[in-house]
Design brief:
485 residues, Purple Acid Phosphatase, chain A, domain 2, 6-stranded mixed β-sheet, 31 strands, globular, disordered N terminus
Length: 485
Amino acid sequence: MSSAKSILMLPAIVALAALIFGPLLSGTCHGGESARTEVRLLFAGDILLSRGVERQLSRDSRALGRALRSTLSGADWVVGNLEGAVGSPDDCRELVSDVPCFPIRGDFIPFLREAGFKAIGLANNHAFDLGQPAREATRRLLGQNGVLPLTYEDSPQFIRFGDLTVGLISLSMVPGRGGGPVINPGTDLRRKIRLARNLSNLLVVYVHWGSEFLDWPDNRQRQAAEWLVDNGADLIVGHHPHLVQKPERLHGKPVFYSLGNLVFDQKYPSTREGLLADCRVNGDTVSCSGLPTRTPAESTMPAIGGDDGSAEKVLSGFDSKLAPSLTVNGITLRPVSASAGNEGAGVVLEAVQNGKVLWKTRQAKIVSIQPLKVGEPKPARYLLTLERHFSPLDKEEGLRPCVYEVGREALIPKWRGTALAWPLVDAAVLPGDDGILCAQHRGDSFIVPQPGSNEQRVAAYRWKGFGFSGVQDVEVIERCRDLFR
């Protein structure tokens, strides 16, 4: 399946790959970015714009901005988790559930931007309260008001601050009404993390998880946090329990298990306390602290101030190192920053050398990206991508591994392949071995395809200059299995 003949049999794939990765040379190269100054990132917990909050905002439309703007405006990027969706209370009654439904007035969405939010998470158990159309209306209104909506399907999203790239994955592990996706550690999330890990200096996972009104992380949170850090997360920021759960360091990485409520109308004293995760990037390090909030009894708007002693005790003095940028053949590859209203359109890569942008790609929905090193003592380094394309051979839109040489003028296709020996589930470069590709396959075949098959097999392949050949080494295959566990 990886021969020249195979590719010639797939003109549609070749043409599509060429279209996607044909360079869009940027007329003239522009100068490099200025030296990096401090970048401040603020992450907030749950935000409600319904019930008691709606009543207060209906009386005083400036209340949210007045409570938050002075603090949030001091950050370069601010994200919060919005509970609910734009629509009418009548739409809630169409859905049968014991879970509360949070309809949001559309004219309240601009208040989020006015308060200082640059991005809003929509991966939670209330995002589909009013169904899919309302959720899409919420995404659309956020984008129209200059606020980037964060969803799992569009993750990872990349935010650029000069030469700093922050990758963000937003997900929910909590079931809700309306059929929203519940994401657990597994293949799809691992691919997203791998893509973000290789294209960002700081990888943040913004996750809706845990048990409501529990002021410590439950076992599922802890297990998921271990998995996320093991797979490459630099910073984990959680929400959903409506109470603050004490942050911790996990293998050197800060984990805010729950930030509690930022803007809410719940009455228990502990639900009126929240925490802002305050993270600052200086040079090649990131440090985090906690900024507490408290909502007065007569209001739904928080007051912000002071430092959180318990967070400081755990987090202070432990700066995390940023990951280096992806560099192949002396050329740095980085994603163009996401923008409100253009989310979900795919990744645009730009190549930088000596502070100058050499070229940019077209938008492409890349599933995974990694450098591929081949040969010693002067290794040739290629770029391995996984892309979704339709193939007339198996008549499926499936994962197709592609290999590119990174040049000064473009990405040069070396192999735009099919799915190797069997239909592909995932593929990753084996660390420490030149040119070894580990593949996780479905248990069926191209001859008798069964896309719904739950059986899987792991295989190893070696790059041969054009295509891959199978590796039968038992030890190598076992190491490949470990990659997908």
